[in-house]
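Lab notebook page, bench 4
Experiment: in silico fold of construct C2
Operator: M.H.
Input chain length: 420 residues
Purpose: comparison with the prior construct
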Amino acid sequence: MSTITSQQQSWDTRKLKRSLRVVQFRKEVVAFALVAPLAIFILLVFVMPVASMISRSVQNPEVIDALPKTTSALRHWGGKSPVPDDAYRALVLDVESNGGNNDAGTAAGRLNGRKDGFRSLFYKTASALPFGDNDAAISAQEMKKRLIEIDPRWGDSSYWRAIASESSRYTSQYLLATIDYRESSDGRIVPVDNGASAYRSVFMRTFAISGFVTLAALLLGYPLAYWISVLPARKANLVMILVLLPFWTSILVRISAWIVILQGEGLVNKALMALHVISTPLPLLFNRTGVLIAMTHILLPFMILPLYSVMKSVPASYTKAAISLGSHPFGAFWKVYVPQTLPGVGAGGLLVFITALGYYITPALLGGAGDQMVSYYIAYFTNVALNWGMACALGAVLLLVTLILFALYRKIVGTEIKVV
């Protein structure tokens, strides 16, 4: 009897476990079904574009797609020995097959970056071909002779080394260019020539502008957020509406308003001249000053909101207790209140800085030639130069900087939490 009872209990236990697993599985399916649309949306609009951008920053398909036979013939050529005769034949066949399409033009532009004069050489050769009705029957030596007759530069091995250097579908050229480096003909990574590029200074300018805007937003936003946090609820809500009001206005409208305010005959200059502070209008537009003022104004709410949310949760009794124990009001504020708001300072600073890194419209409309940030060059390579590799490389570097800043913020905040 006891054996039957034990078996019954064991069967009931297994049945109960199966039922619990079924219930748990159903809950997981429901949870996945609820999360799946958001996960798919993030995958489609964020993960896949970012992955595509990163992969495109190291891809180099232009030359190898336009000159497949030539790059194949030069793939095992070391660059020291004479150019293989088969490469001349391959070049003629490649140019004849696609010398006039867009891919060939893009390839010529890429090769011109490796060797000056390649674009004109390529188009001169394309216009002189074909040699005859059956160029495939002409010997490689004869092809070489005729190409050099078209332009003696084909006898210069440096032009062929330029093609050989682009014979791979993947390259580090774009990423190296973002820090003003390049790969030399012998495979070494060396700095670019003076005046050839300035991306390092562009990145430094971008970080400097973003850092200044973040600091200015903190200095303006901290006292304002503190004032809002100590107001009665009704007045605080009214002030927060005023803080959020710019979000309901187009950024182009706000920039246009700053153009009106900062111009030579604008409100600022007229007010200063009326007060006899200045005798001539200040140059506040189309320079760094206008960019900093407008960006600080536009990004100020991104600093106020995190600060206000943290300050609202800090009990006022802590500061009052410190004052009652003999601390100076400013000392109590600095040593008791401010440390508790540091998470808001970090979150607001990170949000403003990262947002400022990618700003394009404000510097483009209010700044001069020396005030453009990395986003301007990304737009240039995307829309004007059509150099997607360089645009993606610049975007990848900005993404890397953003991830590093976020990781540092998480580490600092985590350390502070552990200490407290």
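Observations: Residues 218 and 303 are 7 Å apart (CA to CA). DSSP finds 20 helices and two strands in the chain.
Next step: discuss at group meeting.
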